[in-house]
């Protein structure tokens, strides 16, 4: 137990030494800071995109996703827009790869 703890502390000290080097190298500090800012921006863009997809999916699933059974597009609409999660996936597919040909009838 004690030897493993010592190895962990040595490893932690090595990591802390890397952070000291970053403090002295200004360009490296700016690069690390830029990566942190970029990761934060990507997180918020992803969060906003998921939120917008969810809101749109709820509206579409409640309106288009529940057609009458005598509708000629009943199976297509139920398959692609029948539930909120399925609708989110369909909207994401359309957004990521806008291959609209398969959605035309």
Features:
single chain; 105 residues; mainly alpha; 0% strand
Summarize the helices and strands and which ones pair or pack:
Blueprint: H1 2-24, H2 26-63, H3 74-81, H4 84-96
Notes on the structure:
The chain has 105 residues and is an all-alpha fold. It has helices spanning 2-24, 26-63, 74-81, 84-96.
Task: Give a brief outline of the structure.
By secondary structure, the chain is mainly α.
Q: Say how many strands there are.
A: 0
How many H/I helical runs?
Answer: 4
What fraction, in percent, of the residue positions are helical?
Answer: over 70%
Main pleated-sheet profile: none
Head-to-tail CA distance between termini: 68 Å
The arrangement of helices and strands along the chain is: HHHH
Mean pLDDT, to the nearest integer, reads 85
- Mind telling me the C-alpha Rg? 25 Å
Beta strand % = under 5%
Structural class: mainly alpha
| Shape designation | elongated
Poorly predicted sequence stretches spanning 5 or more consecutive residues: none
